[in-house]
TrEMBL record:
<dbReference type="GO" id="GO:0032259">
    <property type="term" value="P:methylation"/>
</dbReference>
<keyword id="KW-0808">Transferase</keyword>
<feature type="binding site">
    <location>
        <begin position="329"/>
        <end position="330"/>
    </location>
    <ligand>
        <name>S-adenosyl-L-methionine</name>
    </ligand>
</feature>
<feature type="binding site">
    <location>
        <position position="223"/>
    </location>
    <ligand>
        <name>S-adenosyl-L-methionine</name>
    </ligand>
</feature>
<keyword id="KW-0949">S-adenosyl-L-methionine</keyword>
<feature type="binding site">
    <location>
        <position position="410"/>
    </location>
    <ligand>
        <name>S-adenosyl-L-methionine</name>
    </ligand>
</feature>
<dbReference type="Pfam" id="PF00590">
    <property type="entry name" value="TP_methylase"/>
</dbReference>
<keyword id="KW-0456">Lyase</keyword>
<feature type="binding site">
    <location>
        <position position="381"/>
    </location>
    <ligand>
        <name>S-adenosyl-L-methionine</name>
    </ligand>
</feature>
<feature type="domain" description="Siroheme synthase central">
    <location>
        <begin position="124"/>
        <end position="145"/>
    </location>
</feature>
<keyword id="KW-0560">Oxidoreductase</keyword>
<keyword id="KW-0169">Cobalamin biosynthesis</keyword>
<keyword id="KW-0511">Multifunctional enzyme</keyword>
<dbReference type="InterPro" id="IPR036291">
    <property type="entry name" value="NAD(P)-bd_dom_sf"/>
</dbReference>
<feature type="modified residue" description="Phosphoserine">
    <location>
        <position position="128"/>
    </location>
</feature>
<dbReference type="InterPro" id="IPR050161">
    <property type="entry name" value="Siro_Cobalamin_biosynth"/>
</dbReference>
<comment type="pathway">
    <text>Porphyrin-containing compound metabolism; siroheme biosynthesis; sirohydrochlorin from precorrin-2: step 1/1.</text>
</comment>
């Protein structure tokens, strides 16, 4: 270990910064956040420095560095463009046993500044010992994504409760188990929601031996690409005791679920056995009533043709706490990955989303509205009824040569895009597999220029004419 990682208390301690440029200001800003008494030596100051001096946040003590400027200083940072000045600061600081950092010169550093993830009072520092600072920054970015913003608030609330817990729970081992349960349970969820008063009550209840209540997180898993998950979705998936998931959730997303969570498939797929909605509702209530953290994982967004609202009504009636994490719906994700904009000033001023689960006569849909020109029509779950959709759209005024696309497994590595004309929809649908999305409108033609995900390998089919193609994206 080349460096000992420590956290220094700089409150009101004198710290010297030599240099007035932007880099020096970034270091100064960090010191100010830690409460240091910052003094700067520089011939010229950046606008940010000037403002800080005028506001009394920083003291400008001179323009030329002298070794005596280090007298009484706790630590120093040199960030000038002059190597000779930086070297003098380093040499003088070493002689006085003052910690010193010369920016971008590891050989002249008795301390280095790590990459920091700040969730005060939780602070995570990452360092490469000066060998690969860009790599350290990339690691920090990964941690930024994994550590929720409310982590600091959770630590602050826990700190307030420590003395009360010591009074109630005398055993160290019992207190440790208490905090493990609190940080992984409903207390953490309440803090994440911003309900701090309820979070503090939850700590009181746990300390009094009251069993923690279970809760349900209704999460949109997006269209398939795991990198499109929200941070909140990933955090809850990693904390879940039980996960009820749909057929539409990709394997790539499922791989991110907590390893020891109980996984229950409640998916629905046309033509296959599926779990009745009533049974799914019953399982949600059952597991949450047992005090478990339940994740209901749905493809796309749970409130877009996902029956999410129906499931939450059941939870409300059963007095089960819940939260909703939106996901990218297939109409937005799959079309974007296929290079098809939903709206465009020249072709579509409206975008409409409908479900393809329709009766053969199609009476429940306003086909005159769906068949209008200058709009994009996106149809979920429409493969099985593609012929009825084709006939009704043409019958109600949509031109038979209107461009269409069927996007199979949108956003995933196995994505395929079948393109043709409205008059060919039913035939193209026979080549596609679920889950697929149907897009009707002139914007489909823009995919020839705008497709970006993977590459167009080859024209795999030419069943009808030159406009009927399948594009596989790898």
């Amino acid at each position: 270990m080349d460096y000992l990682p420590i956290f220094a208390d700089l409150k009101r301690r004198p710290c010297l910064v030599v240099g007035g440029n932007d880099i020096a200001w970034r270091k100064t800003r960090m010191l100010l956040k830690a409460g240091a008494d910052v003094r700067v030596i520089a011939e010229a100051l950046s606008p940010e420095f000037q403002y800080a001096v005028e506001q009394g946040q920083v003291t400008h003590i001179g323009t030329i560095f002298s070794p005596s400027d280090l007298d009484g200083i706790f630590l120093a940072i040199a960030a000038t463009e002059r190597k000779a000045v930086n070297a003098l600061v380093y040499q003088s600081a070493n002689q006085r046993q003052v910690l010193v950092n010369v920016v971008d010169d590891t050989q002249r550093c008795s301390f280095i500044v790590p990459s920091i993830v700040d969730r005060s009072p939780i602070i995570v520092a990452v360092s490469s010992s000066g060998q690969a600072p860009v790599l350290a920054r990339l690691v920090r970015e990964r941690l930024e994504a994994l550590l929720p913003q409310h982590l600091g608030t959770m630590a602050t609330l826990a700190g307030r409760f420590r003395s009360r817990l010591t009074e109630k729970v005398t055993s160290f081992a019992e207190r440790r188990r208490f905090w493990e349960q609190a940080f992984a349970g409903r207390f953490a969820s309440l803090v994440a929601k911003g309900d701090h008063a309820a979070a503090e009550l939850e700590l009181e209840a746990l300390a009094n031996g009251v069993e923690s209540r279970g809760e349900v997180a209704l999460i949109g898993a997006g269209p398939g690409d795991a990198s499109l998950l929200t941070l909140r979705a990933l955090q809850l998936m990693q904390q879940a005791d039980v996960v009820l998931y749909d057929y539409l959730v990709s394997d790539e997303v499922m791989d991110l679920v907590r390893r020891d969570a109980e996984l229950i498939s409640v998916g629905k797929k046309a033509g296959f056995h599926s779990v009745p909605q009533e049974e799914t509702n019953r399982l949600l209530v059952q597991y949450a009533s047992q005090g478990k953290r339940v994740v209901r994982l749905k493809g796309g967004d749970p409130f877009v043709f996902g029956r999410g609202g129906e499931e939450l009504e059941v939870l409300f009636d059963a007095n089960i706490p819940f939260e909703v994490v939106p996901g990218i719906t297939a109409a937005a994700g799959a079309t974007a990955y296929a290079g098809i904009p939903l709206t465009h000033r020249d072709y579509a001023q409206t975008a409409m989303f409908v479900t393809g689960h329709i009766k053969p006569d199609g009476k429940q849909l306003e086909w005159h509205t769906l068949a209008r020109g200058n709009q994009t029509l996106v149809i979920y779950m429409g493969l099985m009824n593609s012929l009825d959709i084709q006939l009704n759209l043409i019958r109600h005024g949509r031109a038979p040569d209107t461009p269409i696309a069927i996007i199979e497994r949108g956003t995933q590595r196995s994505q395929k895009v079948f393109k043709g004309q409205l008059s060919e929809l039913a035939d193209l649908a026979q080549q596609a597999a679920s889950p697929s999305l149907i897009v009707v409108g002139e914007v489909v033609n823009l995919s020839e220029k705008l497709h970006w995900f993977g590459k167009q390998e080859q024209q795999l089919h030419n069943t009808f004419d030159e406009q009927s193609t399948v594009v596989k994206l790898a």
